[in-house]
Structure formats: structure tokens, C-alpha cells
């Protein structure tokens, strides 16, 4: 790994630490009393170990983005409840539920639905791909 990648990783980790702290503070302030058990579950989530990233990357022949690694280093996935705790932007009425899968959950889902790797452009035009939700 290059020195630039290592330094970039330290910077991204510092940024992620600040964002995660802000998220947890907002969740503490805004989560309704009847959803506190979901918040407690979220708080208990641990991060993925460095060897878990290496194994995942080797298994799928990919290099995970640094921001993904930084988040999953803190929380290996978001847990199921986060989509209830933070469903979207109240101001614009958008409440698209989501949660971030752990490395193990991604591996499991890929085994069910993706027996072989195929590119999106095999089935969709570049215009259709540009219109996809950026989370995809």
C-alpha cells in the first residue's frame, strides 16, 4: 500500500470519526423512546477487523473504497434498525429505508443473487445506468 493511500486512510478515518460522532449525537437527541432498543443495538455494533477486509477483497477480486473501509472499521454494517432510526430527510418527505450490510451479509446476499459477475451495461444503456439511484 502506498504512503499516499495510508495517509489518505488516516485522513478518512479522522473524517469518519467526526461524522460517526455527529450521527450518534443526533440519534441520541431524536430517537423516540419506543425505539431506544434499536439505538442500543446500533451502538453495540463493532467494526470489521483489517483481515476481514483483506479476505473480502481477495474473495471478490476487488479493492474496497477508503470511505467504505473507514465506516465499516467503526461499524461493520449499520444493523437493521438504522433505517427506522434515520429514514431520510423530513423536510422533503423522502423516507427511503436503507441499511448498510456487513461484510458477511454482503457475502451471503451475493451467494443468493449473484452466482456470476455481470456488468450493468450488459442489460442497461448508459442513460439508464445514469438514472439509477447513486446508492446502487
How far apart lie the N and C ends?
Answer: 27 Å
Taking the sheet with the most strands, its summary is: none
Computed CA radius of gyration, to the nearest angstrom: 17 Å
Query: Which percent bin holds the helix content?
Result: 55-70%
Tally of DSSP helical segments:
7
Please, what is the average pLDDT?
79
Percent strand equals under 5%
List the helices and strands in order.
HHHHHHH
Question: What general form does the structure show?
Answer: globular
List descriptors.
globular; mainly alpha
Concise overview:
This protein has 136 residues and is mainly alpha-helical. Helices cover 57% and strands 0% of the residues.
Descriptive notes:
- With 136 residues, the protein is an all-alpha fold.
- 57% of the residues lie in helices and 0% in strands.
- The protein has helices spanning 3-30, 36-44, 50-60, 66-74, 82-85, 103-113, 126-130.
- The chain is globular and about 45 Å long.
Which helices and strands occur, and which strands form pairs?
Blueprint: H1 3-30, H2 36-44, H3 50-60, H4 66-74, H5 82-85, H6 103-113, H7 126-130
Helix pairs in contact: 1-4
